[in-house]
Amino acid sequence: KSGEMAKSTQLIDNETFRAYATYTAIVLLKMMLMSLVTAYFRITRKAFANPEDTASFGKGDSAKKYLKTDPDVERVRRGHLNDLENIVPFVGIGLLYALSGPELSTALLHFRIFAGARILHTFAYLIPLPQPSRGLSWAVGYAVTFSMAYKVLKTVLLL
């Protein structure tokens, strides 16, 4: 029901909470995949950050040449860092939003737009797509999180 705070014992029956859980799982899994993409790029580009990661290439100077930065690895890392900066706030604010009693259709719109924006942002980073695609996808996701935060504050503080 819209406008009523969900009880913790009823969360699994709450469609808005289930929608939140679904889209949160999607964006968290996407963020986790970025770690695997980073590892893939490190291995294929032979660009490692830690000396122990180069042990399979020998010792001493023969292994030191693999302690380097690579533009492709750094691009993936920046995309992953951007996920951390944006998905983590979404998880917290989205939970508060889901518990604040929004209309299901409005909540779904927020969750779907955020997830879509983050997925587009990842493609824009990895391919890379020309700007402003990355900037716009970031801004859309950010605006969605801000919109949910405003709704939470409006509901809780009666703004």
TrEMBL record:
It is found in: Endoplasmic reticulum membrane; Mitochondrion outer membrane. The keyword Mitochondrion applies. It comes from the Eukaryota. Its EC number is 2.5.1.18. GO terms for molecular function: glutathione transferase activity. Keywords: Acetylation, Endoplasmic reticulum, Membrane, Mitochondrion, Mitochondrion outer membrane, Transferase, Transmembrane, Transmembrane helix. Its main location: endoplasmic reticulum. It catalyses: RX + glutathione = an S-substituted glutathione + a halide anion + H(+). Conjugation of reduced glutathione to a wide number of exogenous and endogenous hydrophobic electrophiles. Homotrimer; The trimer binds only one molecule of glutathione. This is Microsomal glutathione S-transferase 1. It comes from Calyptomena viridis.
